[in-house]
Amino acid sequence: MLEVCNITKIYKQFQKKSIACKDISFTAKEGEIVSLLGLNGAGKSTIIKIITGVVRPTIGDVIVEGYSINNSPIEAKREMGVLYENAPLYNELTVEEFLMFSIQMRAIGKKDASYLAMEALEMGDLLDVKNKKIATLSKGYRQRVAFASILAHRPRVLILDEPTANLDSLQLRAFEKRILQLDKTKIALISTHNLDLAKSICTKHILLKDGEVILQGS
Question: Average pLDDT for residues 88-109, to the nearest whole number?
Answer without folding.
Answer: 90
